[in-house]
Amino acid sequence: MPQSDRFDHYNRCVHRFFAPALDPGDETVTLPRDESVHLTRVMRLGVGDSVAVFDGRGHEFLARVVGFERRDVRVQLLSRVEAAKEPAVPITLAQSVLKGDKMDEVVRDAVMLGVAALQPIVTARTETTVAALLRGARLDRWRRVALASVKQSRRAVLPEIRTPLSLETFLGEPALGLPLMLVEPGAIADAESLAVLRGQPTPADAVILVGPEGGWAEPEWTRARERGVRLVTLGDRTLRADAVPVAAISVLQFLWNDL
Asked: Which terminus of the chain is less hemmed in, N or C, by CB atoms within 10 Å?
């Protein structure tokens, strides 16, 4: 069977499981409890079945279920699998926390598109606080959404879903190679279109700041500009807050030949 056909067959037929304890030098690895439960109770797999395991750091293996230890599943590593290629330019998405389930959708789609990290931020118009987010379960939920998206998109790298920060705290941290803040068209007279990046040198890494449903408050984008953040738009149309990250990441990856 040609290599491309074998890879297509693998993609269609093999279920993927997260194994953070995976060591490429080991013969076997034990899956975490929740992954073991998913394998046995949801997927109804058993001893002898073929699966894939990845460690979230770029390693993935074809494996075989070889045993159960109480409720834990142990698999034997069979052969290395070439995982989906990661983008050449790591992008951190600094996303203002959105209402309801919209943030789940942003995490899902951004991870599928290949972001390196996602930083939830609280802004003047965000309808929550950092303290409330830390007390609640949303951060754990976003991390579960990220893991599910990694499995679906066949990535072997699990992006970091970071602890929420205020915008001011985030802007005080060391800047990445190219910091960009997406603003509404017409809101800031001298904001640039993302198209101005065409033909410019490809950055080593980048961060995209996306605002909440009500947009950025003037002191926020003023402060960001003072910190060296470039204010950019996606053209003349106003997009929903949850649509902006997908559009911006896709445009940047196209400009940087990263698709």
From this structure: N
Instruction: Say if residue 160 is exposed, middle or buried (CB neighbours under 10 Å; 0-12, 13-18, 19+).
Output: middle
Are 223 and 216 contacting, i.e. CB atoms less than 8 angstroms apart?
no
Q: What's the pLDDT at 185?
A: 85
Rounded CA-CA distance 62/7 in Å is: 11
For tokens 């118009």, what's the residue?
A: 125
pTM above 0.85, yes or no: yes
Q: What pLDDT shows up at residue 13?
A: 61
Give yes or no for residue 6 having a pLDDT over 50.
no
Which CATH superfamily hosts domain 91-255?
SPOUT methyltransferase, trefoil knot domain (3.40.1280.10)
Please give the average per-residue pLDDT across 192-214, as a whole number: 93
* Size (the chain), residues: 259
Cβ(114)–Cβ(149) below 8 Å: no
